[in-house]
Specification:
Blueprint (H helix, E strand, L loop, with lengths): L23 H4 L2 E4 L4 E4 H6 L18 H11 L14 E2 L8 E2 L1 H6 L3 E2 L7 E2 L17 E3 L6 E3 L6 E3 L7 E3 H15 L9 H9 L10 H4 L36 E3 L7 E3 L15 H10 L1 H13 L20 H28 L6 E7 L3 H9 L9 E7 L13 H15 L3 E2 L5 E2 L3 H5 L2 H14 L10 H9 L14 H11 L4 H10 L1 H7 L10 H15 L3 H11 L4 H7 L1 H8 L8 H7 L1 E4 L2 H19 L7 H9 L14 E5 L5 E2 L5 E5 L4 H17 L1
Parallel strand pairs: 13-14, 17-18, 18-20
Antiparallel strand pairs: 1-2, 3-4, 5-6, 7-8, 9-10, 11-12, 15-16, 19-20
Helix pairs in contact: 10-22, 12-14, 14-20, 16-19, 21-22, 23-24, 25-26
Pfam family, one: zf-HC5HC2H
Pathway: Protein modification; protein ubiquitination
GO molecular function: ubiquitin-protein transferase activity; zinc ion binding
Length: about 700
């Protein structure tokens, strides 16, 4: 059909259903053909019982010939809709002996099933196919794995179950929108990624899966960002007057990227490279290779093959070979990029949540000797509002406010609070922790307060807990019913021993004897089951794990989850699980000289002293990292910001270094600002830094 034959009128009605609605998601595309004085919904046409596609795809309307459409309209005009009681019911139920007819929109409203496959059959509300709940499967509520809203685990018209995943449930509307967006090539189970079995079941239950590419594949320039190359000079001192982002091809100001990760760069003039032919690696990649012994092996190989030694007998330093790196570099590059992406995403999300914080101040008086009780009192206070700006005043054991309060008080408070939670009775486990069952804590609603405190810490710039187990995190992100715990999640030695005894059974008789020994425990937990084969022990172990790690602590978990909803943290966690996993399940990244060097923005009273000051500062960081100073990198960060780690949300304001004509370094007099003296020699600079940091931290 020629495009000039298409024309839109003012809300024309479909010739089959007589409705003017234009809703492609519900009724398919509505098109008007001025030449034939014809308007029709695509789904009305597909589902009509008396018409078939007898033409090619470009003939008539999607292969339906115009004369055939008119004949179908005439046939339908004699049939009455069993729902709206009006003429024009072109669709009939295909169930044997059923004579119901209806319009397509009426059928949708009455919850009929339309199968967009094979003969395009339709079933009325009485004969439509239904999904069956497997015997023994518990009912209750679950999460739609698309919209993450709760859904009743009962097969209904508007609620569908995945045929391939036991705990995957969906809203019909969510599935239909996803199918229209993903198309036949990308529409899959959101949990296990199954395609064939999942699509067959969804087609049977009336989900339309269009034969098209995914909508995101059709967007113009959808992947343009992937074509962008890194263009920034990361050298310690950039010599380019036009800035770090300036790059001029075929000159000393062209930016060379790290050959391993590609996510760091340097101007040729800002690096030790002598020619463009040399390969360059960033500091992080070089440190990885150095620790793995890669360079040592390369030097041995180079010495054996070429024996390139100068007159003094020293091994000549050569540029890296031109050939691409093998698996160590590529693997490091992949993980490094993933980690940076996830942490950057988490930081951006938390900054977005921080926009809720207003300027009204809430002051908490915190006793260092009893951090938990004073924090609990503050968080439960009548005037406490998590959306207010927080100000922390520390008190000593005599309840007198400290005379000296520095800008890192809030960071220190949240850090002490997270450390207390880690060792509290609310959690169990060694390094990766799950929720414990503390009846007194449940009675006092402490699990809710713990979740609330963690949420407030993340949004207000504090540290993350960093000790969540994967199982606990997955329960929060995907729902406990979709998580399978492991033996590593069991902190109780008696339960772990019971599991080990069951798993180590080598014969059925031995297994039944073990069950008899554990009869009381298995009865109380509801895990007792008859053992008919040796393989039944695996199911029993799984039942014990689910009970002990998940079902046993459902009450604390629900309270904890409600607390994490504070300031919208839980909602973002469920929407961006990978980003939040990187900060909740892992300790903060260990500081390095490069990380601190990149963290601080450098200011100087004059350009003449800038280069020397930068060299002294970076040299000091390298010495501290190498153990050539009494201070540590964490001490430097505490001295400058009041916290020993970089919070997930980042610092506000961003940390800075100011070189000034002062006698000794001054840390955190202004928020996150490190004021350093201008000295003649590096030794003077290092001695002053060591003295100031050690004196301040000791004080």
């Amino acid at each position: 059909m020629n495009e000039n034959t298409l024309c839109c009128f003012q809300s024309p009605a479909c010739v089959l259903c007589q409705q003017t609605d234009d809703c492609p998601e519900k009724y398919g595309e509505k098109r008007t053909y001025k030449e034939y004085n014809l308007t029709v919904h695509y789904y009305c046409l597909l589902m009509s019982s008396g018409i078939w596609q007898r033409g090619e795809e470009d003939e008539g309307v999607h292969g339906f010939l115009i004369n055939d459409i008119r004949k179908e309209v005439t046939r339908a005009a004699k049939l009455t809709c069993n729902i709206c009681k009006k003429k024009g019911a072109s669709i009939g139920c295909v169930a044997p002996k059923c004579k119901r007819s209806y319009h397509f929109p009426c059928g949708v409203q009455r919850e009929c099933i339309f199968q967009f496959m094979e003969n395009f059959g339709s079933y009325c509300w009485e004969h439509r196919p239904v999904q069956k709940l497997p015997s023994g499967e518990s009912r209750g509520s679950s999460q739609c794995t698309i919209c993450l809203e709760f859904v009743e685990r009962i097969p209904l018209y508007n609620v569908l179950k995945s045929p391939c995943c036991k705990n995957a449930w969906f809203h019909r509307d969510c599935l239909q929108y996803q199918a229209l967006s993903a198309g036949i090539f990308f529409f899959r189970c959101t949990v296990c990624n199954n395609k064939d079995k999942f699509q067959n079941e969804m087609l049977r239950m009336g989900i339309h899966i269009p034969e098209k590419d995914a909508s995101w594949e059709l967007e113009e320039n959808a992947y343009q960002d992937l074509l962008q190359r890194y263009q920034h000079c990361d050298a310690r001192t950039c010599l380019c007057k036009n800035g770090r982002d300036y790059s001029k091809p075929d000159s000393k100001w062209e930016i060379k990227r790290c050959q391993c990760c590609g996510s760091c760069g340097t101007h040729l003039a800002c690096s030790p490279m002598q020619s463009w032919e040399e390969n360059w690696e960033c500091m992080e990649c070089r440190s990885i290779f150095a620790k793995s012994g890669y360079y040592q092996n390369q030097k041995k190989r180079s010495l054996t093959n070429s024996e390139k030694i100068d007159v003094t007998g020293r091994l000549l330093e050569e540029p890296s070979p031109k050939c691409p790196r093998q698996s160590p570099g590529s693997q490091h590059s992949f993980h490094l990029r993933q980690l940076r992406i996830q942490k950057r995403e988490a930081s951006n999300i938390l900054r977005e949540l921080k926009s809720q914080i207003n300027t009204k101040t809430t002051r908490l008086n915190i006793n260092r000797d009893d951090i938990w009780s004073s924090a609990l009192k503050g968080f439960r206070g009548r005037n406490f509002n998590p959306a207010n700006t927080m100000e922390i005043k520390f008190t000593n054991c005599k309840d007198k406010t400290e005379t000296y309060t520095f800008h890192g008080s809030k960071h220190e408070f949240f850090q002490l609070l997270m450390l207390h939670l880690k060792i509290s009775s609310l959690f169990e486990g060694s390094s990766s922790k799950n929720l414990s069952l503390d009846s007194q804590a449940i009675k006092e609603n402490l699990y809710y307060e713990a979740g609330k405190m963690i949420a407030v810490s993340l949004v207000h710039g504090g540290p993350p807990p960093g000790f969540f187990s994967k199982t606990l995190f997955n329960c929060l992100a995907y729902g406990p019913e979709n998580v399978k715990p492991t033996e590593e999640d069991v902190a109780d030695s008696d339960v772990a021993q019971t599991i080990n005894m069951i798993k180590s059974s080598r014969t059925l008789a031995h297994l039944q004897s073990t069950i008899s020994d554990c009869y009381e425990y298995l009865t109380v937990t509801g895990c007792l089951r008859p053992m008919t084969t040796l393989s039944d022990k695996d199911m029993l172990v799984n039942d014990i794990l689910i009970y002990h790690v998940i079902k046993r602590v459902l009450s604390p978990f629900e309270s904890f989850r409600q607390g994490l909803k504070t300031l919208g943290v839980l909602e973002k966690l469920q929407s961006h699980p990978d980003a939040f996993s990187s900060i909740l399940c892992h300790k903060p990244e260990r500081l390095s000289a490069k990380i601190l060097g990149d963290l601080f923005t450098i200011h100087c009273v004059s350009n003449l002293n800038r280069e020397k000051g930068v060299d002294f500062w970076m040299g000091y960081l390298q010495d501290v990292e190498g153990g050539e100073s009494a201070a540590t990198l964490e001490d430097i960060l505490v001295f400058a910001t009041g916290t020993s780690s970089i919070p997930p949300i980042g610092f506000e304001p961003e940390p800075s270094v100011e070189f000034m004509y002062i006698k000794y370094p001054v840390g955190n007099r202004q928020p996150n600002c490190l004021q350093l003296p201008i000295t003649k020699t590096y030794e003077q600079f290092k001695n002053k830094m060591d003295f100031a940091i050690s004196s301040t931290l000791r004080l």
